[in-house]
Automatic annotation (TrEMBL):
Residues 9-39, 49-80, 82-111 form the 4Fe-4S ferredoxin-type domain. It comes from Ornatilinea apprima. This is 4Fe-4S ferredoxin-type domain-containing protein. InterPro entries: 4Fe4S_Fe-S-bd, ET_IronSulfur_Cluster-Binding. Coiled coil: none annotated. GO terms for molecular function: 4 iron, 4 sulfur cluster binding; metal ion binding. The keyword Metal-binding applies. Gene3D superfamilies: 3.30.70.20. The keyword Transcription does not apply. PROSITE patterns: 4FE4S_FER_2 (PS51379). Keywords: 4Fe-4S, Iron, Iron-sulfur, Metal-binding.
Length: 163
C-alpha cells in the first residue's frame, strides 16, 4: 500500500510559515457550507508541538487506505486527480476511513454523521480556497515530487549559506 504519490496533487502546509490562524478552516467551511464553522472544515490546523502548527488535508494517496477500508464502498477515488469523493447515499458514518487515514485528514460531519474529505475545491473557480486565502502563504497545492524537490532546494540553500 502506497501512502504518497508523485502523480496526484494535494494541499500541504509549511509549518515554518503557518501561524495557526485557522483562516484555512473558516474559508473551507464557508466554501462548502456557507457558514464560518471550523467543525465543517475539510482541512484542520494541528498543533504538533508547543510552537509548531500545521494544517492537514487529504493527501490523495495512491491505493488510498481510506477507500480500501470503507466497508460500504462509499469512497471513490478519481483515477485522474486522486481526489476522493464520498457517496453520501452509501456512507453510514462508521468512521473506518477516519481510522485508516495515516494523515488524520478525514472527519465525520457532526450534523450529517457522514465522512468529509477535502476535494481541493474542484467545483470552485480558482481551486482550493484555503491556499488562495492563507495570509502567510503557508498552504500550497503540490505533488509529492514537487514537495521533495522543494525540500532538496531548501537543504541545498542551507548548506551553501551555512545556516
Amino acid at each position: 500500500m502506497t501512502t504518497s504519490s508523485s502523480k496526484f496533487k494535494f494541499i500541504t502546509c509549511d509549518p515554518e510559515l503557518c501561524v495557526g490562524c485557522q483562516l484555512c478552516e473558516y474559508i473551507c467551511s464557508y466554501t462548502k457550507t456557507g457558514e464560518f464553522n471550523t467543525y465543517h472544515s475539510r482541512i484542520r490546523t494541528v498543533r504538533a508541538e508547543e510552537i509548531l502548527i500545521t494544517a492537514v488535508a487529504c493527501r490523495t494517496c495512491e491505493d488510498a487506505p481510506c477507500v480500501i477500508a470503507c466497508p460500504r464502498d462509499a469512497l471513490i477515488q478519481d483515477k485522474d486527480t486522486g481526489i476522493i469523493h464520498v457517496d453520501n447515499s452509501k456512507c453510514d458514518g462508521c468512521a473506518w476511513c477516519v481510522v485508516a487515514c495515516d494523515f488524520g485528514a478525514i472527519s465525520i460531519d457532526p450534523a450529517s454523521k457522514l465522512a468529509e474529505i477535502c476535494d481541493q475545491c474542484e467545483d470552485v473557480e480558482g481551486g482550493p480556497q484555503c491556499v488562495i486565502w492563507c495570509p502567510k502563504e503557508a498552504l500550497e497545492l503540490v505533488t509529492a515530487d514537487q514537495l521533495a524537490q522543494k525540500a532538496r532546494r531548501k537543504l541545498a540553500v542551507k548548506e551553501v549559506l551555512g545556516k
